[in-house]
Amino acid sequence: METSDRDSDVQKWLKVALAQENLDNFSVTITGSSEKGDGYIGDVIFVTVTGTDKQGKNKEYDLVLKCSKPSTALMENVPAFSTAFVREIYMYQHVFPLFKQLQITKGIEQPFDSVPKCYGVYSDESRRVLVLENLKKLGYDLWPKAVPLTRQVVDLVIRQYAKYHATSVAFENQYPEKFQKLLSDSTEDMLKQLIESDDFVKLFKTTVDEVYDVVKDDVKSDTSEQWLKLKDQVTFICGEMTPDIDDLKVINHGDSWVNNFLYKFENEDKTKISKVAILDWQLSKYTSPVTDLSYFLFASLSEEDIADIDTILRDYHKQLCEYLRKLDSNFAGTYTLEKLFEDWRKYGIYGLLICIYPIKSLYSGKEDLPDIAEVADKGAAFTESFKFEAKDKSGFKNRMRPIVEYAVKNNLI
Q: Which of 79, 122, 162, 263 could form a disulfide with 320 if both were Cys (CB 3.0 to 4.6 A apart)?
């Protein structure tokens, strides 16, 4: 997109999205944009908006614009990506406000608020834009991508997931009709749409083979052979698993890899973290909370902490039940720790499969990650944009080996 066209589009989008801010006039300065490999499904533009409201008061906003790709070929050939943007907008416009109101009603002093403020949206036939506060201006930043999270950070995220999942459970218990409307009005699951493509199924199976190739010489042969059986579960994990779940279900996050969390660092050397913000809700759906837990833990943990997953799950269960009680949900006494471990054994396989591609991308250079819209515009299948090798095979192996060993030892496959 030419710079002049982009500037014009951004002005147009913000005029609609910031309507509730009642600005008489405003100017926009574009301060940056996502790099290759960052905004994979969409693009990100960073802007500063200055203006005056109708009372003449000066206003300034540091904003993030999440934009769908301006590729007609991509949207026509892969409608699931359009679905993903609609889904995230729905979460900000409908789900989060209702969940927030429930927590306010219950007088929660420290509610789940680990998402950026949404100022508004813009949508037309060709583009969808979500306008959010720029948390980096408030001291938030990414964790170093190829570095496993410390236990302190893991515990921080687990607490927020417990609060969010508990709020979903409590809202469903106490407002069943409103909750069903949330489900019926939302869009179809993106992964379920994608899995209808044979190419996408083959892509996932190929990633399982890639892990086998890098770890086979470092694990027992029966372990590596058992890992390969994960390929038989691809269609189930991405398509059939969610509708078949009769156990605890929540409206989940869905995309729990390291790039989708921002942390508020309280000191310059970034050793003290006070808050986390959870980003990118495009893959959210009504499913087991274990999908979030397994994806997050397998994508983020050190080898030492993978060996201690049971303790992390116990902490999650304690936090979940405590928050359910604060929300006056009678479900707190019925979802036992034993049931959580049972659900982990059933649905933890989700995180095993979904974490492979993001982990592999951590050990590849950004120049090796094709732009999905560029691939589509050239007439190639969109799955071609996911076909790349890990440059640092040793790093990739060292992250995946303990995951493979844990999965086989604990009968997740």
A: 162
pLDDT, mean of residues 377-397: 76
How crowded is residue 184: how many other Cβ atoms within 10 Å of its Cβ? 7
Domains of the chain with bracketed CATH = 139-409 (3.90.1200)
Q: CB–CB of 114/182 below 8 Å?
A: no
Q: pLDDT tens digit string along 308-341?
A: 999 999 999 999 999 999 999 988 778 999 999 9
**370 contact partners, CB below 8 Å, separation of at least 6:** 384, 385, 388
Nearest to 396 by CA among 315, 314, 299, 313: 299
The arithmetic mean of pLDDT across residues 264-280, rounded, is 89
pLDDT digits (tens, 9 = 90+) for 15-50: 999 999 999 889 999 999 876 555 466 789 999 999
In one letter, which amino acid is 307? A
How far apart CA 199 and CA 354 sit, in angstroms, is: 16
Identify the three-state secondary structure at position 123.
Answer: strand
Helix (H, G, I), strand (E, B) or coil at 52: strand
User: Which residue do the tokens 């990739």 mark?
Assistant: 396
Give CA 362 to chain center in angstroms. 16
Task: Give pLDDT, residue 193.
Answer: 75
The overall average pLDDT reported for the chain is 89
Q: Which long-range contacts (CB under 8 A, 24 or more apart) does 152-156 make?
A: 152/273, 153/263, 153/273, 153/276, 154/297, 154/300, 154/301, 154/305, 154/312, 155/312, 155/315, 156/263, 156/273, 156/275, 156/276
Q: 209: how many CB neighbours lie within 10 A of its CB?
A: 12
SS (H, E, C) 14-50: HHHHCHHHCEEEEEEEEEEECCCCCCCCEEEEEEEEE
Closest listed residue to residue 358, CA positions, set 413, 316, 396: 396
More reliable by pLDDT, 217 or 376: 217
Cα distances (Å, whole numbers) of residue 315 to 66, 242, 350: 34, 25, 21
Which letter, b or e, does each residue of 65-97 get, where b requires 16 or more Cβ atoms within 10 Å of its Cβ? Answer: bbbbbbbebbbebbebbbbbbbbbbbbbeebbe
In 305-402, DSSP assigns E strands to: none
Nearest to residue 388, comparing CAs of 412, 413, 365, 411? 365
The whole-angstrom separation of Cα 12 and Cα 258 is 32
Beta strands 128-133 and 58-68 are antiparallel
